[in-house]
Amino acid sequence: MTAPHDDQPSGPRVGWFSRRLWGLHALVVVAVVFCLFMGLWQMGVYDTRREHERADQQAVPEVALTEVLGPDDAFTATANHRPVELTGTYAPAGDQVWVSGRDQDGTDGYWLVAPVLVDGVEAGAAGRPPALLVVRGWSAEAGDVPEPAAGQVTISAVLQAGDARGSGLDPDSRVIDGVRIPALVNDLPYDLYGGYGIVTDQTPPESADLAPVAPPDPEVSWSAGLRNLAYAIQWWIFGAFAVFMWWRMCTDLRNGPGGDRPSGARPAPKPLATAE
Description:
It is a multi-pass membrane protein. Residues 256-276 are annotated as: Disordered. It is found in: Cell membrane. InterPro entries: Surf1/Shy1 (IPR002994). This is SURF1-like protein. The protein is built from 4 helices and 8 strands. It is of the alpha/beta class. The protein folds into 2 domains: 1-61 and 218-276; 82-203, no CATH class. Strands 2-4-5-8-6 form a 5-stranded mixed β-barrel. Helix 1 (22-58) runs antiparallel to helix 4 (226-255). The termini are close together.
């Protein structure tokens, strides 16, 4: 009869902190730290490139409004965020509107938007005088419309695209919830431009007690620095792969030949078969 023998491995199981695994532990720590560092560095380059592109758009030189946009021209990406200068006359206070839902330093309030009749531009086919809507300033409340500067004014402004959604103008309060140029065309007797401007400077200066409005930062294309973003993700994938390989190699060493007995121990001899 053949004597039974014990197939269970002898000796204690090798732990995760066994000396034979110290080299792999050190290697994975170095690899993960390096991959994290390289990924963060590439993310920094990605952010820097986007900031540079935004700065380049903000550094565009100021030109005359007539060189960028006409009253009957479609508002394109070329005109968006473009600094322009124009000379004209403010429309009467009764033709100006308050735009609700405008935040200023964390406080909800209103923009005062006024048409400016642009000098040197001929009236359109409908005979309406051409006018560019401009943001005169911000106020915490929408009350009586303050009178604008009288006579001819020279305005520096940053062009913006009109709001796409919102309700119409309330004729009693003169409040609208967005700079919706198609809606305001029906309420104002002017040939309005396809965009509006945020005033950055004016001569003579604004006389009303209105806070100046800062133009928003230009939107940066999603593709700016995209290669660096891809490199960052790639480095982090390498780090994750290094962790996976470390786990696999440690598991194989712990479960492989000699992995279930202490270092230096020999396997127990198999018992000899005996005949009955």
